[in-house]
Design brief:
Length: 611
């Protein structure tokens, strides 16, 4: 529906352009193969917990996962051995030291956490398998489940790491001497070299992050990669330890569980909502991507992603979505207009939103609109059930309105409390901020008018004023009966807004609408008055009260200047004796019309009973 990628893609592109000019930092030259990569490669990718992927830059450039592998191997060790057994070998406390430090906690004699090299090698040693090859194969398959595709090892990088990894071998032997690693320390460190050498793309990392955000189920393949309790354990450790000796600054300024790697990647997770990945190989003093850190910080600030900014409804902001063909307004139209709306009504749609609108909720709403098949000519966003609205949600919905307007789609809001900050309702059709209504029914009628204006067949006129003889209640009667009945009616003209019949009034007559519109209203829990139904020329009201001798259930007002033909209760009753055939014919015509009105009204009310 919407061209050029949409609202979220444009935000990522803005962040990409902002960070691309930063060429500070250096490549990881202590691993020769990593020093040979293209230093200006840069990609940003965001994947939602329900599987939508957005990206900008080098999304399919392969690079080795390096230390981003650590939380995933830790997850596999937890699944194989159980949290209690793993806790006997690896602590979960921040170290405050560089990732490559050769040290154990002086009190526990264990690695301080699984995100530093000592803890990662210990985790690799805890992975089950028949032999060394099987244990690494299980690691690769586990990563592949998270990524949603088969991943492979980069042989050249593995050879380079193995050839120069003396410091990691020293850590492995330290672990063996402390009883943390039971088997061959060379096998454990070799497995660690291999897991760090698995090739990924920034798109892969975003999906892996989204799998963690989705409680361990891959949002693309729907395959479970990790159980929910273990996801909580892994994300907790990533929060406190994933960014090494800059973890405190990261949590305060970005506020997302994350892991970086010297290959230039960063992975970050907003639980329940999204996964983010960035690739840019120039590193800062902590071994993290310079552009990656900057991009994550910018995305967190722009999108309001800090995990302590709690929302009452994470995502799935769409409460209902439907077209005006499926749920028409409560304005009763003639047969010609109803035929046009039946054919073209799917070009106008209403989206009801609910919950708090932070980034994830706004993203799901924007995506639903952008993914609407075919073209749209009119759109209504109903925000009355929305709670908190973040600045990024306002920006995204404003951008969506502008995009739709540029594509020829008119946009309106149902936002009586101005949650999006639209304090006035524009009457300019070209204004991308569109119209603002206090209730959905008025907005639905607005949509219908747009469709009718654009698709009414040439020569088909808008509903015109009628004479009494032309009203459907009398038009098809024999001439003598029509003439006899017409004498019994009196004509009344009422100004716009004038009360025609008050609620609880006794039988007040049979009303035939000759010109203008008549509105039945009710009052909601907030004391706002809403339309129940609007009747147009050719329709009638008062029949039920007259026949059943019951009071009117609603107030009836003139919506416009209106001309009515009224048959008083006395004259109606007198027809039983004076002209019974004419009265019976009139009642038969009114019953047929009433059935058509009731069918249309029930379709509107039954589909969406709340206004």
């Amino acid at each position: 529906m919407v061209p050029s990628g949409g609202v979220v893609a444009r935000i990522l592109e803005e962040v990409y352009e902002l960070c691309r000019s930063d060429t500070s930092g250096t490549l990881a030259d202590y691993i020769p193969e990593l020093a040979a990569v293209q230093p200006d490669s840069f990609g940003i990718c965001l994947a939602t917990a329900d599987g939508r992927v957005y990206g900008s830059g080098d999304l399919d450039t392969a690079f080795t996962i390096q230390s981003i592998s650590k939380p995933f191997t830790y997850a596999l060790a937890l699944a194989d051995r159980g949290p209690a057994a793993v806790a006997e070998r690896i602590d979960v406390e921040p170290s405050g030291e560089p990732f490559f430090e050769i040290s154990l906690d002086p009190t526990t004699q264990r690695p301080r956490n699984p995100m530093i090299n000592a803890g990662a090698i210990a985790a690799a040693a805890l992975v089950d398998g028949a032999d060394a090859a099987d244990r690494f194969a299980r690691i690769r398959r586990s990563y592949s489940r998270f990524a949603g595709r088969q991943l492979s090892m980069n042989e050249a990088v593995y050879a380079s790491e193995s050839r120069t990894g003396y410091r990691n071998r020293a850590i492995a032997y330290l672990l063996r001497g402390a009883g943390i690693v039971d088997g061959d320390p060379d096998e454990a460190v070799d497995r660690y070299f291999r897991q760090c050498s698995i090739d990924v793309t920034v798109r892969d990392l975003a999906v892996m992050a989204a799998t963690l955000a989705n409680n361990g189920t891959n949002p693309l393949t729907r395959e479970r990669a990790l159980s929910r309790p273990l996801v909580e354990q892994v994300l907790s450790v990533m929060t406190t330890c994933g960014m090494y000796d800059s973890a405190g600054d990261w949590v305060t300024t970005v506020g997302l569980p994350a892991k970086s790697g010297v290959g230039g990647g960063i992975l970050a997770v907003l639980p329940g909502q999204i996964g983010i990945a960035v690739y840019s190989p120039r590193l800062d003093a902590h071994g993290s991507s310079v552009r990656g850190v900057k991009a994550c910080r910018e995305l967190s600030n722009r999108l309001g992603l800090h995990f302590l900014h709690v929302t009452r409804a994470a995502h799935t902001a769409i409460r209902a979505a439907y077209s005006v063909a499926e749920a028409p307004s409560r304005l009763r139209r003639d047969a010609d207009e109803m035929e046009v709306l039946h054919e073209f009504g799917d070009l106008a749609r209403i989206f009801e939103l609910h919950g708090d609108l932070l980034f994830a909720g706004a993203e799901s709403a924007v995506r639903a609109v952008e993914d609407t098949p075919g073209r749209l000519e009119a759109l209504v966003l109903d925000l009355r059930e929305v709670g908190d609205v973040s600045p990024v949600a306002i920006r995204m919905l404003d951008d969506l309105e502008a995009e739709l307007a540029a594509a020829g789609c008119r946009v309106a809001l149902v936002d009586p409390d101005a949650k999006l900050g639209h304090l006035v309702s524009s009457l300019d059709p070209k204004d991308p901020r569109g119209r603002v209504f206090i209730d959905r029914d008025s907005a639905t009628e607005w949509c219908e008018e747009i469709i009718l204006d654009r698709h009414r067949p040439p020569g088909q006129a808008c509903p015109a004023a009628l004479s009494l003889d032309e009203h459907p209640a009398l038009a098809d009667l024999p001439d003598d009966e029509r003439a006899r009945l017409a004498k019994e009616f009196e004509t009344r003209t009422l100004a716009r807004g004038e009360l025609i019949v008050a609620r609880d009034s006794p039988r007040s007559g049979l009303f035939l609408i000759l010109d203008g519109r008549v509105r039945f209203t009710f009052t909601d829990r907030d004391n706002r008055r809403h339309r129940l139904i609007t009747l147009t020329p050719g329709l009638s009201f008062g029949e039920t009260s007259m026949l059943a001798n019951v009071p009117f259930a609603n107030d009836v007002h003139a919506e416009t200047t209106v001309r009515l033909a009224v048959l008083s209760p006395d004259r109606f009753d007198a027809l039983t004796a004076q002209a019974p055939e004419a009265k019976l014919a009139l009642l038969q015509r009114l019953a047929a019309t009433a059935y058509t009105q009731a069918d249309a009204a029930l379709r509107s009310v039954a589909t969406h009973p709340s206004l």
